[in-house]
Design brief:
Radius of gyration: 25 Å
Number of strands: 11
Helix content: 40-55%
Structural class: alpha/beta
Number of helices: 14
Order of helices and strands: HHHHHHEEEEHEEEHEEHHEHHEHH
Distance between the termini: 21 Å
Largest sheet: 9 strands, mixed
């Protein structure tokens, strides 16, 4: 093998491989990513080409040429396309194991403290005339400061707590997209607590006699009586199931209320919908439902809910810092594989940046300069993409018949 090529492949083994799970070949065989090793010697070689494709902007035909130039495989572009689509379960398992291994169990034990999970979703647009979208469903542990669960679907799959596993002692927090009776009762069945923001006009609350309680009327009554907060108990229903629920609402400061109303008007204008006075009125309140009892005050619950903003910052970091906003056009499996590859690369960069940040913080007393976490992440991501792209173009001999 060309010594220069071997040197670049050694960098890959040194800088990337340690972040990946052990026994990759066994994992690839179990998930069906590598069933026959015709043309591909190992799961590591498969990942090198998959990562190369995710970090580049060329076709499968050029990808097959690159794989041949790197001495990894001489299979056709059609064969690489099939392997790429079959790799989704393999990539899912890699992502899951990487997330699970970021912290050891001893680092994540909080005796007597609920495991707070922040749930949200965001879309990634595909290139092309159709501009299809993929939705990334994400569950983030506030206690452990890391992603716990990830699921990728097409944009037709709605936001739901049912995408995630949860258990007794967990506290789930999510925005109004999850504020439904279905999600509330699902969490109750899993013995988990929730704090979910709701839209008052769309959430049905009932009293003990089964009569519907108008949340909009309760808010208007509180407005007339100059009450800053209301805290009521009731019931919600989904199909034949009923859940005991607590509703807490707090009036927003005027400047926040004005911003919320502007967002409502802008969204209604974009969707060409008429906006009602009740909608604008309710925009001036933060309204949540929770299964937490009276041992928690309304102020404590609302303050805890505000920490949900961390997951919004996480998506902002993924999309803006690493430019993961659009992916190549393709079918659902193709798009899912691309998103999973991007998330794996992002987690490697986050891990490297975290280690760098920890070292720098230990030296803070001796450092006079101020470093930027954003810049650390960007540099880590650029380094990783540079390594993953591999200088394959240097090793192509177009006069060689094998490339034809």
């Amino acid at each position: 093998m060309n010594p220069l090529l071997q040197e670049h492949l050694n960098i890959w083994d040194k800088k990337i491989l340690p972040h990946l799970p052990k026994q990759l070949d066994e994992l690839a065989a179990q998930t069906g990513a590598v069933q026959r090793k015709r043309g591909i010697r190992s799961a590591q070689d498969l990942l090198k080409i998959l990562f190369l494709y995710a970090c580049s902007d060329f076709s499968f035909r050029i990808l097959a040429t690159a794989a041949c130039a790197l001495g990894i495989s001489d299979v056709s572009d059609t064969a690489w396309r099939k392997r790429f689509l079959k790799a989704v379960p393999f990539l899912h398992e890699i992502l899951h194991r990487m997330l699970s291994s970021l912290f050891t169990p001893s680092d994540t034990l909080f005796t007597g403290v609920k495991n707070v999970l922040l749930v949200d979703a965001s879309t990634v647009r595909q290139q092309g005339a159709d501009e299809n979208q993929q939705r990334i469903h994400l569950c983030y542990s506030l206690n452990q400061n890391r992603i716990k669960q990830v699921k990728v679907t097409d944009h037709h799959t709605a936001e739901s707590l049912t995408h995630f596993s949860m258990g007794k002692g967990d506290l789930i927090m999510a925005d109004a997209g999850y504020g439904t009776a279905r999600n509330y009762i699902y969490a109750q069945e899993q013995q988990a607590d929730v704090i979910l923001r709701i839209t008052p006009r769309n959430f049905c609350l009932y009293d003990a006699d089964g009569e519907k309680i108008s949340l909009v009327s309760l808010l208007k009554k509180a407005e007339e009586q100059n009450q800053e907060m209301i805290d009521v108990f009731g019931f919600c229903r989904y199909r034949n199931k009923t859940g005991y629920v607590r509703v807490i609402a707090q009036k927003l400061p005027e400047h926040q209320a004005q911003k919320a109303r502007k967002r409502k008007k802008r969204k209604a204008c974009k969707n060409q919908n008429q906006i009602t006075e009740d909608t604008l009125f309710c925009a001036g309140y933060m309204v949540v439902i929770t299964s937490l009892g009276a041992e928690y005050s309304g102020e404590e619950i609302l303050n805890l809910y505000r920490s949900r903003w961390q997951v919004e910052l996480l998506f902002k970091r993924v999309k803006q810092s690493f430019s993961i906003t659009t992916i190549k056009a393709g079918n659902t499996n193709y798009a899912e594989a691309l998103v999973l590859l991007q998330l794996i690369l992002w987690i490697i960069a986050e891990h490297q940046s975290f280690l760098c940040e920890r070292i720098l913080k230990e030296k803070t007393e001796r450092m006079e300069t101020i470093y930027s976490t954003y810049e650390n992440c960007m540099i880590a991501f650029i380094q990783i993409k540079t390594i993953l792209c591999l200088p394959w173009g240097l090793f192509i001999d177009l006069a060689d018949e094998k490339y034809f």
